[in-house]
Amino acid sequence: MNNKGFAISSMIYSILLLFLMLILGVFILLGSRKVILDKVKNDIVTELSENRVYEIVFEHKNILLSNTSKVRNFTFELLDGVKVLDQNGKVVDTPVTVESLPTFDSTKNGVYQVRYSAVYQGYEMEENRTIEVIDPIVYEYAYTGSEQSFVAPTNGVYQTELWGASGGNISGTAYNSNDSIRSSNVTYVGGKGAYTTGNIDLMLNDRLYVYVGGTPDRTNTTLISGGTSVGGYNGGTSLIVGQEIFGAAGGGATDVRLVNGSWANFDSLKSRIMVAAGGGGANFRNQGYGEGNGGSGGGLSGIDGKEAMVAGSYFREDYANGYSIGTGGTQTSGGIVKNFLLNGNKVETRSGTFGGLSANLSQSGGGGGYYSGASSSHGGAGGGSSYISGFEGCNSIAQSSTSESITHTGGPIHYSKKAFQSGVMKTGEEQMPTHDGSSVMTGNNGNGYAKITALIIDNGKLASNLIQNSSFEDGTTNWSLSNTKIVTDHAKTGSSSLEFQPSVTAMSTQTMNTPQAGHIYYGSMEFLSSKTFMTSDNRFEWYLSDSANSLMIFARKGDKTESWKKLSARLSLDTPNSGSWKIRNFLVNASEKAYADDLFIIDLTEIYGAGNEPTKEWCDEHITYFDGVGVVPGN
């Protein structure tokens, strides 16, 4: 190739190279432009999102609400718990309006859809809320002489009501100062129990321990023949042994605690968040040394015991000490004994204690309470004081307190931070609701009582225990027993359980409604046996009478429990069954007796819907026993 040809070729190659570079530059420029445009678009989206994306969050979006016409001290605010949050979870200050579809009425049972509308910076957001108004679900606790417990079935607001126990009565013949009979039939009565109530927020599986106070075993003590010397359960003061003929013991308080244990365990007493005080015992010195009624359980302070004598009227002049009364407990100390001498002087000595723990003995016993009332020798004993965490005027115990050194915070809220709203205290001399809520009474007479009512249940569902008389409190009602019997010396709930005899086939049956084909059931029971099951024939099971394969097996070979243990099963009913469902319990070749309590079956399909039935493990963790109708959490 000559020089001319080489020059032309080089020029062509250069032009081609420039062209290629130009094209490449265009592509690079376009690519950069796309990056820029994408960035601008993302900025716009981010900007819009930051300004426009908000979420209405409900504290109670889908709830069960107790019918407010059937529950005391409870008003329901329609906007309860409504908040508007931005995308970062920050609360936005914004007005919220409500439109009810149909009109919401918390006094009529039914399902209501409520629409919420929130407006922020010109943007409107809407959300729906389902409210089902139902008859109140009530958990009740009668006196048993031991601790009982309540487990919150799901998040919600619960009303707690407590009634303290009354002190003991005494009757006999009263004499004038010259030993002549003034009256042959005189009765002095113990102070009546107080009442407390309040509403508290609880979370799923929160546990409260309920201690129901007892009245003395024999409330009508008779002079000379004597009576009980033992104070009522949970803080009622006992009498001096041998002095029972002169007075009656005190009634116990009813309380709710966060820590269990024996009633007198200090750490357990310290954990009380509500207390309804018990009444003091009456006193009757038959020779006119001093006599009177017991003081009632009080509010912030207990009611003083009464002295029935008028100075100089009935006193035996040879009795130098005159008479005494026990005063009521307070928020920081127990009651004191006021000894009134014939010369008009009085001597005060402390007697009541925190919770009635190791209270002094005398001839009439002080009532239990936050602090107990004072006992007395020749007059009525004082009633205890009440306490509600969060109630104005209450003085909460400090967490650092010990039984040897008790201090107080000066504020009304318990150190656990659990507190009640809408608190009410009634002394035993005031009107209060009856236990069933159908009427009113002046003070509580007899054993104490407790009720916990579900007011607002967040994401809860109603359920029915398909077993009737499931904890055997109504004896053999609804049960057909074979080699089994109802006993009261063992019980998980209430005072009764089912006992299975050793070395025999023990069976108890209950005919139930025909189960639904295709439904899934969950069952549980409380079981107590000190011996290990040794063969596969030893078992507790529930079955369908026309299908031997439809079994819920609870306990079999290898199982052993020396304390109450929850056993459970989940049964899928795939085929139609026309027969009734029966419950059968076997205990074969066991060398010791076994016990069953709290029998429980619910229809998961009916409650949660087909395909949404929870697992056995979920049910074990979240569903607790109840008799009749109760609440289970949404899954």
Describe the overall structure.
It is a single chain. With 635 residues, the chain is mainly beta. It folds into 4 domains: 3-52; 55-134, Immunoglobulin-like (Sandwich), CATH 2.60.40; 143-457, no CATH class; 464-633, Jelly Rolls (Sandwich). Helix content is 11%, strand content 34%. The chain has 4 helices and 38 strands. Strands 2, 4, 5, 6, 7, 9, 12, 23 and 26 form a 9-stranded mixed beta sheet that branches. The protein has a 5-stranded antiparallel beta sheet with strand order 8-13-15-16-22. A hairpin with a 6-residue loop joins strand 24 and strand 25 (440-442). The protein is globular and about 135 Å long. The model is unreliable at 1-8, 219-227, 310-321 and 534-538 (pLDDT under 50).
How is the secondary structure organized here?
Layout: H1 3-52, E1 54-58, E2 62-66, E3 82-86, E4 96-101, E5 110-120, E6 123-134, E7 137-141, E8 148-151, E9 156-163, E10 169-175, E11 181-188, E12 195-202, E13 207-211, E14 220-222, E15 254-257, H2 266-270, E16 274-276, E17 283-284, E18 291-292, E19 323-326, E20 336-340, E21 346-350, E22 387-388, E23 421-426, E24 431-433, E25 440-442, E26 449-458, E27 460-464, E28 480-482, E29 484-487, E30 497-500, E31 507-509, E32 520-529, E33 540-544, E34 547-555, E35 561-572, E36 581-585, E37 594-603, H3 604-608, H4 616-622, E38 629-633
Parallel strand pairs: 2-6, 10-14
Antiparallel strand pairs: 1-3, 2-26, 4-5, 5-6, 7-26, 8-13, 9-12, 9-26, 10-11, 12-23, 13-15, 15-16, 16-22, 17-18, 19-20, 20-21, 24-25, 27-38, 28-31, 29-30, 30-37, 32-35, 32-37, 33-34, 33-36
